[in-house]
Design goal:
Elements lengths: L12 H22 L13 H21 L2 H6 L1 H18 L1 E3 L2 E7 L2 E3 L2 H17 L8 H20 L3 H5 L4 H7 L4 H20 L1 H18 L7 H23 L3 H10 L6 H9 L3 H12 L11 H4 L11 H34 L3 H25 L17 H19 L6
Antiparallel strand pairs: 1-2, 2-3
Helix pairs in contact: 1-2, 1-16, 2-18, 4-5, 5-6, 5-17, 5-18, 8-17, 9-10, 9-11, 10-11, 14-16, 16-17, 17-18
């Protein structure tokens, strides 16, 4: 571990260096994807890359503040930070600004501020505080309910703002709780619900129900310690009911663009004309993103040389679709490097989390890794067409001050907690 001798500056520099590499490389790709015109002025603060440079500069001050605060502050005031964050989400319904159909921003002068980006760190602190309390036992049902409420409150408020992408990220906390002793039934239930939904849409409720019945009763008869027959029968009824209800939810709850994205992902639509129409309309960004990535080949076209990037074929490429710039201009080599850096960062955080002496710091570290993983997995999977299009940023890469600061706060609070590890009991 790279550490200096002074206890006050004994931060994990491996994590910090990876963070710096991601932010720096991300900014270069923002330059490529947002530059307009023949001349390039890196200090043109009217352009997204110029504004991002300001955000990065302010991030340095933010990091200094986070690391200067006593580590125990974050545990002691976790509940207060969480409440303030929830109030900022509620305030959006009164003072919020609607951008692209989502009321997720406050307008301050010519700038916008997105509180949902900071709510993730606040929720992680609150979960770590509650679960690490001596009176809490995550294996007890009442404590599980209270923990779920802490997670669901921000998720529900963000969903009401029409920001489904940010809502999904809160599923990351269930992996954190699973590490702390949450019964496996919850993880099994979540995987089962997703599997039933996908199979029902792809093959229909009858086939899905048959598959479910075969799996349930095969497991029952192969089990050495057989439960009473009532249990598999009840589970079978639930599976059949869920399979039948999926299409109702799909047809009557999801919006048209959401159905189109799922339809193309699962290849539900068979009409070539309809598919071509969807690609030109709601899935235009994804279609152009895939072409940009594939055109990069093995070595890429070079910095500022991507024809689809410089030609602005991918709308708002410097935000959620920033990875398509990496694919086109830096190719397979550059894309692999970015993925390796993210994997190293998450593994490093997990490694440090396991070294923590306090349960609070360990839980918070796992929350940081889980949130980063969800954003990383969903964003890159989205721009490559591996999962349905979900609008969430790539951490430290995508353009935006709120996103950069939100992830910076999330990560550097843990770096501060880790630096205090020698004083933890």
């Amino acid at each position: 571990m790279i550490r200096v001798t002074n206890r006050h500056f004994s931060f994990d520099w491996i994590t910090i260096i990876i963070f710096m590499l991601l932010v720096g490389f991300g900014w270069l790709n923002i330059v490529s994807s947002s530059h307009v015109g023949e001349t390039l002025d890196y200090l043109d603060f009217s352009q997204p890359y110029g504004k991002q440079l300001i955000f990065i500069g302010l991030t340095i001050g933010l990091i200094i503040i986070i690391l200067s605060i006593e580590a125990k502050f974050y545990e002691r005031f976790a509940s207060v930070i969480y409440i303030i964050s929830m109030l900022s989400l509620v305030g959006l319904f009164i003072f919020g600004k609607n951008v692209n159909g989502a009321t997720s921003w406050y307008g301050i002068g010519g700038m916008t501020f997105q509180p949902s980006e900071f709510a993730k760190a606040a929720t992680a602190l609150a979960i770590a505080k509650y679960v690490s309390d001596l009176q809490t036992d995550i294996r007890r049902f009442p404590d599980q309910i209270r923990t779920f409420i802490i997670i669901l409150v921000p998720a529900f408020l963000i969903l009401l703002q029409n920001d489904a992408g940010s809502t999904i990220v809160y599923g990351a906390f269930f992996f954190v709780l699973y590490r702390e002793g949450l019964p496996q039934i919850y993880l099994t239930l979540a995987v089962s619900v997703v599997s039933i939904a996908i199979l029902s849409l792809k093959f229909g409720p009858i086939v899905t129900s048959i598959i479910g019945v075969i799996i349930i009763f095969t497991r029952y008869f192969l089990s050495k310690k057989k439960p009473i027959i009532f249990q598999p029968i009840l589970i079978t009824i639930i599976v059949i009911a869920m399979s039948a209800s999926v299409h109702f939810f799909y047809d009557n709850v999801l919006q048209a663009h959401q159905k189109d994205r799922i339809s193309l992902w699962l290849k539900l639509e068979k009409d070539p004309t309809k598919i071509a129409e969807m690609r030109r309309d709601i899935l235009y960004n994804l279609y152009e993103s895939e072409k940009a990535i594939s055109s990069g080949g093995f070595r890429g076209r070079g910095f500022m040389e991507g024809t689809r990037t410089t030609g602005k074929f991918v709308p708002e490429q410097h935000t959620d679709y920033i990875f398509s710039t990496v694919g086109e201009e830096w190719g397979f080599i550059g894309s692999s490097l970015v993925i390796i850096l993210f994997v190293l960062l998450m593994l490093r955080v997990l490694h440090l989390a396991e070294l923590q002496k306090s349960q609070f710091s360990r839980i918070y570290g796992y929350a940081v890794a889980a949130i980063l993983f969800f954003h990383f997995m969903i964003n890159i999977g989205m721009v490559m067409g591996l999962i349905p299009t979900i609008g969430i940023p790539l951490p430290f890469f995508s353009y935006g001050g709120s996103g950069l600061w939100g992830f910076t706060i999330l990560l550097f609070i843990f770096i501060k907690l880790d630096s205090n590890r020698i004083n933890e009991w």
